[in-house]
């Protein structure tokens, strides 16, 4: 293989720049899911991460108008971010209602179904003859918010994380980390990692080795900080030494968001946006989507719809309504059949009567004929 | 009846008072630490986290009483704290309420049966629970479904005092808003909590002021800590964060001191009286006048059965109808055939006749 010298090259080295130009023009799309109980600072975190109000804070005046529907909803918030003329179409998937009820059994079903549905939808679109305009809502990463109990993961957390880890890039996050002292936090993180390992929960990992030393070191420090402890705040506060930072102001001090000694927010932001966003997108497409596709193709033919089990309690009401309508319609049809039956019976009776009449007529004619024949034959003799 | 009774009787002071307190809340809200902070000793051992392989197993709720002797300003108090580890930790928590309610009613039943004995035991130990501290998670939003359910179900049997656990995760502004919303929720759902009752006309000004102040602090913001740290040369009980130290005994930081004083000095007599004169009497009346059976079938279950039966009936009748239809059609066809053959015969006979003629 002939090699070209630097300076006398034919321009192959310019390929990355071409890719850069294409990528800059095309922009990128990121779909992120945030899951966890309410009151753990999910909305605040999203707004802090993107330094803008992606989602409005909860409106408490409406809480008494809530119906007693105990469901987990899927809420999709879309935003378009632009920085230095590079566009990112951001979709944030929120899961209000998860973990909030007394009985949370199967409350993870809507979330799992949503993730699978996105893979399914992409797969179907890919199999169409025309596949230019694909709408891709596959979830690239899922941040699971853990309550800062200081003890261990709850059974509900373990159930959900097990199911999420096999379908999406799962990043566990310790919410409201300013509740715990550094020693407590350290013990809690160790504990969570032990449980994750023992329960075989698959969390997001990325290749640590990189070309330059600095990146490798940074990658290792990011991995070591998992699960990330975060503090979220969109307010500017004044610290005791005069700096204005994003943080939370207590009577005993200010907890800063971007201070690495206080929380791992910076590391997480680096992971999500600065360094590994593309890896998140690619691993979703290459690993998780391929796994889903393989599993589906082993059991289904191309073009066949997916077998769905309706377990959403919300739909039970609709099922009831449909069933009532069905019985109503059956009743109507039955009445129609009855009247039709009556008609047929009447028709049959009438025909029978006609038949009888014809019969008697025929008999009369036959009798006449016979008599005539009898009359004839003696004549012949 | 509601003004606090200062222990002046020497005999009582020597014998001491007995008080039972139950602490309920999800794990990780600082219940155990609070109990140890309240008694200034490690009464409840720290939770031993089990094997990571067993972390997905849901243990049920357990009820564990601990008794400790306290000395408050020279007054001996025999304090029994009932801890409830495992509450709210399972995926389905419906069962927890019944467990706690069963325990409370069990104590009432014991007293009831003891009272009705011919020869009563003088040394009978009164295990009725006088107050329940319910730990609310510091979400910053409002009460969750499990909070409302528990308080609704237990308030007919016990004095409930709602408190906010780990309140050092809320800034002062957030804490004030949260307290307001929690009290709004409690009023909206009409939950009768213990709110330091006073009578503006009957009681003296001091009592009114004291009780209204305590009422305004509801739900109490609590922080628990057993370790001591040094702040400005003083040794205090507190939590050391990188950004500052939260002091447990500082009324600016949390309401621990006020709650402790209310529970162990000023209001425990009131709580005991309400438990005995009101809650226990209600229970007694209800139990003694309860009729045996309460048969209430699940109506909706019946309806379901009904509609399913009807569906089956309809299906059968549909089948029958189809059969009848087919039969009628067949008979029609047969008759038509007959008619036709007879017609043919007729025609041939007619033809014959014409021929003959």
From TrEMBL, chain A:
The organism's taxonomy opens as: Eukaryota, Fungi, Fungi incertae sedis, Mucoromycota, Mortierellomycotina
**Cross-referenced Pfam families:** Septin
Q: What does the sequence similarity comment in the record state about its family? A: Belongs to the TRAFAC class TrmE-Era-EngA-EngB-Septin-like GTPase superfamily. Septin GTPase family.
Q: What is this protein called?
A: Septin-type G domain-containing protein
Q: Which UniProt keywords are given for this protein, alphabetically ordered?
A: Coiled coil, GTP-binding, Nucleotide-binding
> Mind telling me which Gene3D superfamilies this protein's record contains?
P-loop containing nucleotide triphosphate hydrolases
Per the record's keyword annotation, is GTP-binding included, yes or no? yes
Q: Which organism is it from?
A: Linnemannia gamsii
What SUPFAM superfamilies does its record include?
Answer: P-loop containing nucleoside triphosphate hydrolases
Q: Does this entry carry the keyword Membrane?
A: no
List the coiled-coil residues. 316-368
A single GO molecular function term of this UniProt record: GTP binding
Q: Which residues form the Septin-type G domain?
A: 26-299
* UniProt GO cellular component terms: cell cortex; septin cytoskeleton
TrEMBL record, chain B:
Keyword annotations for this protein, in alphabetical order, are: GTP-binding, Nucleotide-binding
Q: Name one GO molecular function term.
A: GTP binding
Entry GO CC: cell cortex; septin cytoskeleton
Q: Region (Disordered): which ranges?
A: 287-317
Answer whether the UniProt record assigns the keyword Nucleotide-binding to this protein. Answer: yes
Q: Ranges of Basic and acidic residues compositional bias? A: 305-317
Q: Where is the Septin-type G domain?
A: 15-290
What Pfam families does the record point to? Septin (PF00735)
Q: Which family does it belong to?
A: Belongs to the TRAFAC class TrmE-Era-EngA-EngB-Septin-like GTPase superfamily. Septin GTPase family.
Q: What is this protein called?
A: Septin-type G domain-containing protein
Organism, by scientific name, is Linnemannia gamsii
């Amino acid at each position: 293989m002939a090699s070209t010298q630097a300076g006398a090259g034919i321009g192959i080295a310019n390929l990355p720049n071409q890719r850069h130009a294409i990528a800059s023009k095309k922009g990128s799309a990121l779909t992120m899911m945030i899951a966890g109980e309410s009151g753990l600072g999910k909305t605040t975190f999203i707004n802090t991460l993107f330094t803008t109000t992606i989602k409005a804070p909860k409106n408490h005046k409406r809480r008494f108008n809530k119906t007693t529907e105990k469901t987990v909803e899927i809420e999709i918030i879309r935003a378009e971010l632009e920085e230095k003329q590079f566009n990112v179409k951001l979709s944030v998937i929120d899961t209000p209602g998860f973990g909030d009820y007394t009985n949370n059994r199967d409350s993870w079903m809507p979330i799992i179904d949503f993730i699978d549905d996105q893979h399914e939808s992409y797969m179907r679109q890919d199999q169409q003859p025309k596949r230019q305009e694909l709408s891709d809502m596959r979830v690239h990463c899922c941040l699971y918010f853990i309550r800062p109990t200081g003890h261990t993961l709850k059974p509900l957390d373990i159930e959900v994380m097990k199911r999420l880890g096999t379908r999406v890039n799962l990043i566990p996050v310790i919410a409201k980390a300013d509740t715990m002292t550094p020693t407590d936090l350290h013990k809690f993180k160790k504990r969570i990692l032990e449980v994750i390992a023992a329960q075989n929960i698959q969390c997001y990992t990325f290749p640590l080795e990189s070309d330059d030393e600095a990146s490798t070191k940074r990658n290792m420090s990011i991995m070591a900080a998992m699960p990330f402890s975060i503090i979220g705040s969109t307010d500017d506060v004044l610290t005791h030494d005069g700096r204005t930072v994003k943080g939370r102001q207590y009577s005993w001090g200010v907890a800063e968001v971007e201070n690495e000694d206080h929380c791992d927010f910076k590391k997480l932001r680096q992971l999500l946006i600065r360094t590994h966003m593309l890896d998140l997108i690619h691993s979703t497409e290459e690993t998780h989507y391929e796994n889903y596709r393989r599993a589906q193709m082993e059991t289904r033919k191309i073009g066949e719809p997916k077998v769905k089990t309706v377990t959403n309690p919300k739909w039970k009401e609709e099922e009831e309504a449909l069933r009532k309508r069905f019985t109503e319609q059956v009743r109507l049809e039955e009445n129609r059949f009855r009247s039709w039956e009556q008609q047929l019976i009447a028709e049959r009776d009438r025909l029978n009567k006609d038949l009888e009449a014809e019969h008697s007529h025929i008999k009369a004619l036959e009798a006449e004929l016979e008599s005539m024949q009898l009359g004839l034959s003696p004549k012949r003799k | 009846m509601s003004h606090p009774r200062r222990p002046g009787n020497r005999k009582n002071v020597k014998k001491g008072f007995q008080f039972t307190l139950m602490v309920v809340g999800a794990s990780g809200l600082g219940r155990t630490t609070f109990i140890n902070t309240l008694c200034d000793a490690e009464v409840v051992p720290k939770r031993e986290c089990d094997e990571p392989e067993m972390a997905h197993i849901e243990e049920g709720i357990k009820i564990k009483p601990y008794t400790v002797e306290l000395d408050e300003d020279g007054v001996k108090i025999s304090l029994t704290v009932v801890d409830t580890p495992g509450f709210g930790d399972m995926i389905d928590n419906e069962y927890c309420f019944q467990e706690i309610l069963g325990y409370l009613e069990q104590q009432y039943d014991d007293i009831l049966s003891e009272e009705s004995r011919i020869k009563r035991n003088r040394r009978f130990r009164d295990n009725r629970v006088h107050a329940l501290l319910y730990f609310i998670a510091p979400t910053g939003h409002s009460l969750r479904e499990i909070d409302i359910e528990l308080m609704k179900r237990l308030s007919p049997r016990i004095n409930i005092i709602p408190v906010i656990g780990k309140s050092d995760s809320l800034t002062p502004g957030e804490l004030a808003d949260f307290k307001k919303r929690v009290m709004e929720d409690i009023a909206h759902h009409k939950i009768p909590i213990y709110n330091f009752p006073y009578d503006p006309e009957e009681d003296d000004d001091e009592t009114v002021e004291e009780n209204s102040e305590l009422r305004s602090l509801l739900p109490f913001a609590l922080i628990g800590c057993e370790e001591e740290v040094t702040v400005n040369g003083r040794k205090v009980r507190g939590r050391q964060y990188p950004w500052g130290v939260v002091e447990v005994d500082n009324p600016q930081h949390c309401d621990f001191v006020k709650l402790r004083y209310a529970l162990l000095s000023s209001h425990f007599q009131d709580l005991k009286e309400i438990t005995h004169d009101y809650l226990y009497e209600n229970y007694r009346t209800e139990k003694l006048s309860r009729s045996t059976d309460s048969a209430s079938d699940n109506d909706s279950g019946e309806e379901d059965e009904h509609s399913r039966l009807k569906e089956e009936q309809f299906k059968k009748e549909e089948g029958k109808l189809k059969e009848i239809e087919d039969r009628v059609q067949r008979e029609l066809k047969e008759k038509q055939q007959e008619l036709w053959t007879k017609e043919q015969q007729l025609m041939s006979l007619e033809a014959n006749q014409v021929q003959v003629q």
